[in-house]
Amino acid sequence: MNLYKKYMEVLKRKSHGTGKFRKKDFAKIGKDVVIEKGVLVFHPENIEIGNSVYVGHNTILKGYYKNKMIIGEGTWIAQQCFLHSAGGIEIGKNVGIGPRVIILSSFHEIDGKLEIPITQRKIKFQKVIIEDNCDIGAGAIILPGVRIGKGVQVGAGAIVSKDVKPYSVVAGVPAKLLRFRKK
After folding, report:
1. Catalytic residue check, 108
2. Which entry of 16, 43, 57, 108 is annotated as an active-site residue?
3. Could you give the CA distance from residue 139 to residue 17 in angstroms, rounded to a whole number?
4. pTM of the entire structure?
């Protein structure tokens, strides 16, 4: 095998694909779903989208070869978001996700052996759950393993590293409770 062919084979194995998709590729896709131009979708066979969902321009729905990404009906995902569901993501109904929100469900384990490069460390998977009627502010980051309770409001730019109780308002880095909302 010549060197070029060998190089192309290596690239193929490492690539996650182009992100191009067809609606029929999804595990499930509801009625009245709008997916704007420039959205990239990886592993759509592991992504379920409910009715009346909006996905904004240049968002990346990064499904994974295992685990599921589930987006509940009536959810609005603004432009330039990044959802990575290696560990699984469940988003409830009527959730608002602001521009440039990042939701991560995996991370490289840090075990004290700092001489090991990050790319060679074991990956840990932890599901993220965002319950119904939440509002995730622009630029917020939701870290692996977090559960955000029903009706929570997350402030813009917050980094959510711990579970959030229902009807809370959180903001900051790391996100802290500001108050509880009335139901």
Report:
1. yes
2. 108
3. 26
4. 0.90
